[in-house]
Amino acid sequence: MTAADRAEGEAEQTGAAPTRPFSAFEWMIAGRYLRSRRREAFISVIAGFSFVGIMLGVATLIIVMSVMNGFRTELLGKILGINGHMLVQPIDMPLTDYDPVSKRIEGVPEVVAAIPFIEGQAFVSGPAGGFGGLVRGVYESDLRRMPLVANNIRAGTLDDFDSGQGIAIGSRMAEQLGITLGDSITVLSPRGSVTPMGITPRRKAYPVTAIFEIGMSEYDATFLFLPLPEAQAYFNMDNRATGIEVYVTDPDRVGVMTQAIEDAADRPAFVTDWRQRNVTFFSALEVERNVMFIILFLIVLVAALNIISGLIMLVKDKGRDIAILRTMGATRGAVMRIFLITGASIGCVGTLAGFILGLIVCLNIESIRQFVSWLTRTELFSPELYFLSRLPAEIDSGETITVLVMALVLSLLATLYPAWRAARLDPVEALRYE
């Protein structure tokens, strides 16, 4: 029988009853250990660093994952808002029956719109210079069914778009070409008229009747929209279309809808979806997101290791106090719970503080970016590099709960070994040289 067992036996013989698990007595002792005293200042500093580490780790994880989610959602919305969820292209024969095919595809359940279009590359020029652009011809009714364009007209209108010979361009293109509403831009295409001397480039000036701003710099600087009949005439594609863009209610279900779209087309056609066309881009985003999670997880892990070192030092410093508590009747379980409460309190409060900090930053991420840009006089999150004109953040409740649970579990696990060592302390050995 050890000295600790003899002490517990003597306490039982004197009628001392063991305290209830997690009683007020245990919380009181744990609270006293958490409060700083001059003799324990170094231990309190370690506990403070552990708290700050967990808070910053949790906050950083929530912020970074939210920004990555916002990136994916914004880019997915912009890309699919222009290019559609599925693309139907002709095989073996030109797509001359695009109108009836579009109507049949729109009859498929979960299909929102089927938009025939003409697409071609061209060189566009204005007073301030010129560069390459992507000309897309669509009906006015179909252009209005693309809310990313129709709801973001910054100047002009889409009224009478089909009947006129005007063109709709992005805001960054208008800025780079140095033109405003009503000015004309020149569109030059290598696919021109066939002459005895060969194919001559086609050059034509169009008045700007609408300027849109999607919010994705690459699209605002590249896309031009012409009426479908005018685009057919310009690219020598009379009564033909390049393809049909299909929009569905749930972009994640395009895989199971491919066969239904092919059956509805009722002609040789090649159907691809947004995942196949953008697989490299979104795979890179997913890899970056997972790597960032692993890297930032290490911050929380380091903070949890600080809890272990701080509690071990606290156990060594409080050896005499633990021995006195044991001789007064405190059980090993009570001592272990006291140090569990001490360490877990740091982790729980740090996790809660990190959650609040991360939530505040995510809800004000764009204002913070603008303030830091103003303070440092630099442009953070340049639209030319990151494609988007604003810094997005989308908090996912499932991911946030996972981060919080992970931090709490790590904090709890970090307290087990120091608390076990405190419970195993022999009171006789601790008081031998006192």
From TrEMBL:
Main location, first listed in the record: membrane
Domain of life: Bacteria
Membrane topology label: Multi-pass membrane protein
Domain MacB-like periplasmic core positions: 51-263
Subcellular location: Cell membrane
Keywords of the record: Cell membrane, Lipoprotein, Membrane, Transmembrane, Transmembrane helix, Transport
InterPro entries given in the database record: ABC3_permease_C (IPR003838), Lipoprotein-release_system (IPR051447), LolCE_TM (IPR011925), MacB_PCD (IPR025857)
Annotated ranges, domain ABC3 transporter permease C-terminal: 293-427
Transmembrane segments: 41-68, 291-315, 335-361, 401-420
Family: Belongs to the ABC-4 integral membrane protein family. LolC/E subfamily.
Name the record gives this protein: Lipoprotein-releasing system permease protein
Record organism: Roseibium denhamense
Lineage, uppermost ranks: Bacteria, Pseudomonadati, Pseudomonadota, Alphaproteobacteria, Hyphomicrobiales
